[in-house]
Amino acid sequence: FAGQNINSAGSVNLTRLLPDGGAPSTQNVESAGQVWELSGPSSNVLFAAGWEHAVQRRSQIWEYDPSEGTWSSALSGGNDTPLYAIDVPSPMFGLAAGQAFYEWNGSAWSTARLPPPFSVFGLKVFSSTEAYAVGTDSQSRAAVALWNGTTWTPIGPTTRPSGSITRVRGASRCTLLGVGSGGNAMTTFP
Whole-prediction pTM value? Predict the structure, then answer.
């Protein structure tokens, strides 16, 4: 299992934690940045998302190479596009989001067709036609949207509390749980 050491001494370090409790190995992959989330369907397909501070919060996705035991850049996005969330449920599909939105097709990351309708802090991807994004809308309210493979549709009540939902987890739509700041939490999504 891979873990993260966020912004240690001003640099991005990704650490491989050994299941037998042996000494972990750490690799500095970029200077002055942060890693926010890790995701992958197996130890052979594993990504980390975050940004580089040295280049005005440029979005970054790193890929783990299990044969070499190293991390390398899989995508470098535009300035002021930090990534906060990544979910890669299969070797052939995944999404990464924050102030930018990217899609994994099994061989490369590319800018997705349509960004979510708000700042995204958490993703839960079930398939290429069902994904949930959580975050904060333009009025600093908790927000949830559903991706159907073509468009994002905001879901939930029109009157929402202030704050944000920062992470979402669950095995199915009926078991999704979101947590965040401002007292926001959901046990199921509408």
Answer: 0.80
